[in-house]
Design brief:
The structure is a single chain. Strand 14 and strand 15 form a beta hairpin. The mean pLDDT is 89. The protein is 8% helix and 53% strand. It is globular, with a radius of gyration of 18 Å. Strands 17, 18, 19, 22 and 23 form a five-stranded antiparallel beta sheet that branches. A four-stranded antiparallel beta sheet has the order 2-27-26-25. The protein has a single domain, classed as Tachylectin-2, Chain A, CATH 2.115.10.20. With 310 residues, it is mainly beta.
Length: 310
């Protein structure tokens, strides 16, 4: 079976069998009013003492019907915005993220960081995202760790691919006892530890042959272990792209216990979850819809327990 045929089959199965959480469990997605002239995509949210902090990318490309992308005629480049939200997810402030450091020699990114995940590490705000860089005549996409202070990128670490791939996206951050680990792949599970300014593979690198479960949100502490969301490789259905998500459940020792059956968050189509934080009686997930809108969803424990054995 060809890769395209496999994608079409997976898409048909997902459309027929995967539940939509908001419909199946009577949940209400919350719309986030974002900044910029372009649509905002793939928000990542974290909890703060007074509310929430969120980053989202204002994209120069507008998606139509989950498949076609048309560039803004004004040629406005992508911009990451940092938002502070109150406890009702109302936007209090928004500021463009100053990424000038990433334009310097050694980084030279073409556009702004994409698909950023926010997290706290060593009492500072960090993000990890994908950066398209030119190396001679070749374009590569690397994962870059970057530290943010007052909406300015003040430090950054470019991470080499452990497999030599020229396209690296969606590494999952997990801070454990002050140590930053990154999940490179879920199936098989490959862990990377940040030592100083270097990424070190933990144990033997397991060969990736079927990389369907890919990073989505950060991992957070949850009921004695770690919880997050991953997305499946994009499937096709009637010519349209479709992402499903699954919950992932780890022990405190970062042993992968379970990847749940797939589901949709809000609609059957293109969705992308990039943020997670704890909530009373459950979790909060931030996600993009149709590559042109940002939403937040409260997911109660009863829904998670429907998918995972906890």
């Amino acid at each position: 079976m060809s890769k395209r045929d496999k994608s079409e089959l997976a898409g048909r199965i997902a459309m027929a069998s995967a539940q939509v959480l908001t419909q199946s469990f009577d949940l209400d997605p919350i719309k986030i009013s974002t900044s910029g002239l372009n649509p905002s995509v793939n928000p990542s949210i974290i909890k703060t003492p007074s509310g929430y902090l969120m980053v989202a990318r204002s994209s120069r490309l507008r998606c139509y019907d989950d498949v076609d992308y048309i560039e803004n005629s004004a040629k406005i480049d992508d911009i990451n915005y940092i938002y502070t939200l109150d406890n009702a997810f109302k936007v209090i402030t928004s500021s463009a993220l100053d990424e000038r450091l990433l334009r310097d020699a050694g980084f030279c990114i073409k556009h702004c960081m994409s698909d950023t995940r926010l997290f706290y590490w060593q009492d500072k705000l960090w993000g990890i995202g994908a950066a398209a860089q030119l190396q001679g005549q070749k374009e590569v996409v690397k994962q870059v760790l970057f530290c943010i202070e007052k909406n300015v990128v003040v430090d950054a670490i470019s991470l080499d691919s452990p497999t030599g791939f020229s396209l690296e996206k969606n590494w999952t951050p997990i801070v454990q006892d002050g140590v930053l680990n990154l999940i490179y792949s879920f199936s098989p599970l490959n862990l990377i530890k940040i030592e100083g300014r270097t990424a070190v593979v933990q144990g033997s690198l397991r060969k990736i042959t079927n990389h369907d479960a890919r990073g989505g949100t950060q991992l957070i502490e949850y009921q004695g272990g770690y919880l997050g969301l991953v997305h499946q490789a994009p499937n096709m259905w009637n010519g349209r792209r479709s992402y499903t998500h699954s919950f992932v459940w780890f022990t405190k020792d970062l042993e992968l216990l379970e990847i749940s059956e797939p589901f949709y968050l809000q609609r059957k189509g293109l969705e992308f979850a990039a943020g997670i934080c704890q909530d009373e009686g459950g979790i909060i997930v931030s996600y993009g819809v149709a590559d042109r809108a940002c939403r937040v969803l409260r997911i109660p424990d009863r829904v998670i327990e429907r998918y995972l054995t906890i």
